[in-house]
Automatic annotation (TrEMBL), chain A:
<dbReference type="Pfam" id="PF02515">
    <property type="entry name" value="CoA_transf_3"/>
</dbReference>
<protein>
    <submittedName>
        <fullName>CoA transferase</fullName>
    </submittedName>
</protein>
<dbReference type="InterPro" id="IPR003673">
    <property type="entry name" value="CoA-Trfase_fam_III"/>
</dbReference>
<dbReference type="InterPro" id="IPR050483">
    <property type="entry name" value="CoA-transferase_III_domain"/>
</dbReference>
<dbReference type="InterPro" id="IPR044855">
    <property type="entry name" value="CoA-Trfase_III_dom3_sf"/>
</dbReference>
<dbReference type="InterPro" id="IPR023606">
    <property type="entry name" value="CoA-Trfase_III_dom_1_sf"/>
</dbReference>
<dbReference type="GO" id="GO:0008410">
    <property type="term" value="F:CoA-transferase activity"/>
</dbReference>
<keyword id="KW-0808">Transferase</keyword>
From TrEMBL, chain B:
<dbReference type="InterPro" id="IPR003673">
    <property type="entry name" value="CoA-Trfase_fam_III"/>
</dbReference>
<dbReference type="InterPro" id="IPR023606">
    <property type="entry name" value="CoA-Trfase_III_dom_1_sf"/>
</dbReference>
<dbReference type="InterPro" id="IPR050483">
    <property type="entry name" value="CoA-transferase_III_domain"/>
</dbReference>
<keyword id="KW-0808">Transferase</keyword>
<dbReference type="Pfam" id="PF02515">
    <property type="entry name" value="CoA_transf_3"/>
</dbReference>
<dbReference type="GO" id="GO:0008410">
    <property type="term" value="F:CoA-transferase activity"/>
</dbReference>
<protein>
    <submittedName>
        <fullName>CoA transferase</fullName>
    </submittedName>
</protein>
<dbReference type="InterPro" id="IPR044855">
    <property type="entry name" value="CoA-Trfase_III_dom3_sf"/>
</dbReference>
Amino acid sequence: MKAALNGIRVIDFGHVMAGPWCTMQLASLGAEVIKIETRARPDEQRAQHGKGAVANLEANSNFFEINLGKKSVSLNLTTEEGRALAKQLVATADIVLENMRPGVMAKLGLDYVELVKVKPDLIMLSLSGFGATGKLRRYAAYNPCFTSVGGTSHLTGYAEKKPNTMTNSGGDARAGTAAVFAAMVALKFRQETGKGQYIDSSSSEVINSMIGDQMMDYAMNGRSPHRHGNSHPTMAPHNVYRCSGEDEWLSIAVGNEQEWQGLVAALGHPAWAADFRTAPIRKAREAELDALIAAWCVDKSYVEAMHLLQAQGVAATPCFKAGDLFNDPHVLARGQVQEVDHPVLGCRKTITSPYRLSQTPTAIRGTAPILGQDTDEVFTSLLGMDGQELERLKAAKVVY
Amino acid sequence: MDRLKARVIELADFVAGPYCGKLLADFGADVIKIEKPGRGDDARYIGPFKDDVPNPEASGTFLYLNTNKRSVELDIETPEGKAAFIELIKTADVLIEDKMPGTLAKLGLGYEDLAKVNPRLVVTSITPFGQVGPYKDYKAYHLNLYHASGQGYLLPMWAINLDVPPCQGPGYLGLFDGGMAGATATLAALFWRDGGLNGASGTGQHVDVSIQHAMMTLERSQLRRFTDEGVNPNRTGKGRLLESLVECKGGEFAVVILSSQQQWEGLWRAMGCPEWGAQPPFDTQKGRSDNYAELRKRLNEWSRTVTQDELFHAIQKEGSAAAPILTAEGVFKLEQFRERGHFVTIEHPVAGALEYIAQPTRPSNVNLPPKRPAPLLGQHTREILAELEMVP
């Protein structure tokens, strides 16, 4: 099958979320991704669960979710030979990704300055919470830290309530997604100029750049915008409404006169509609209007209500739950969900890459790897290592 | 000077498509924005505006999303406009479009039509639900997409109960997600077209991005909990000892991390080693988790005695994670951001000189031309038609 990144090799020193997220998407575009990991200090996503440390490193579904289609090589980077072998692998690769705390790769002798010596046109991506330079470079950051520093937490939630740090993956996921974009920029430049690149990416900056429009009010007027729940500065209705099922909510947004007429038609031309003839009136009497719409929603399922409103050209969607999405006819028709087999977790539904390329389709090219499952193959085929040497390295816990 | 050697035609409004175009323009691609004559991009009307005075040439949202682009006023529904559009397409590498599926085909400008004119063209379509599937014609604003993607149902995280309605995310974040997916796939398509790794030449192709899918993918780590447990994760985060929002002196907020014993110990030292923190039940993860409400109360008693900034540095100095919840003002005042070049000043003929959030991807070996402001409506119409030898 044709794939956009056929032949591109990625050496992945990523761990936890943002890094592995990036390389998984590169794998879906066709790159060969070799994850370097060690039993001596397993990827937190293998070893930790919400409830604490896990017994089986191969049974973590969160690891599965962000490591699909990769190879795994076990290599202990605390050993000198381990580091030398990592360097040899990098020499065969196009891209290196890492998201260790800034300074760690340098300590290992595996920073860009060292790696570019063995691969002059290397593309290297370093991801961290605050970036690899500046006074805060060593500061620890998990997802809620960069959604907070990145300005999104302050803008999420209801106006009268406290700010919200969002869910525990959105920030990592976006940092990882921006890194895929960065890798593509670098590959395109390399194709044009032959030059490699080093990219030092700050997750906080990435998140903030995705609300850069919201920052303009400060740039222009010295004002900081505030969170506003589901509402919109001018549109009404623009809210969620409770439907008949358990915790079912329908989102409705009306942006122009035609959509308002559509809403009125879908609701069966109620007499009260005449009281809300213009957009400014609807906005001024929004609470009243919301109550009337809520009364219409209350005895309908949210899927039924979506179809009735969309049939009249009104933007209305259920507030889908995870279970809805894995069974939704549209999601399934587009192949947004796929079953993938895993030796420990069994056959699971998971979500595919969000772009359909007509000539070079993305694909989940394999399940999440068992720790070290590709060690022999990679060292044999890429480094020409023989069986005896491999056994020695395993015994010395270099390959571990 | 380096730049992405690509000409991009952007037939898109508001946020998702224009952000896709901006991501390419930020690296020097020649992005030509097609705007409706006399009106232009919808983002020109959304603001924010200086002193709240509406001006379609100075809407903050438009200015941010359209830096480094050129603007041509063209109505593709008129014969002249369509002819000019096709001439442009012949010179282009990419078309970014956000029309509802089938709209361009009806005008004879669908992917198949354009591929005949220019087989090397990459067409990137970015719409709420994509080009195929039962909801492809369904409308959705940012609010609707947030809720349709599975992300809205999980917000506001830490809701006290399910009577708190689910909530959209900040700004137009979901539309940015769509644009990011579009730009990434566009570059992948160009990379392959131009020979990929081995120089074997490919063709153009059609890239179909569903914003709903892009957002759903981003929430995979939470959505998978349904596959694990058969239960829908929701917005109440009760009993999960991961982090806590705390209020600081002066009413500002911060977040502290509670996910491990090690994180706790740093936080505890930053608080000045209070006795209660070393005694049961607060001396273990389990004890803190079981007494989470009381723990939060005690954390807040301390946090209200320090400023947001003091809390941030005190905890980080002890090796644990914490962060200030920044407003826009806080963002602009954060020295770390300034030191790293997170802001760029751009002079615009109407809006004047303003500080913009810079492109956060900054490759080391690329020397990009200086940033240009967002275009005035139709600012480059004559220039571009002259390039096509179609001067009116």
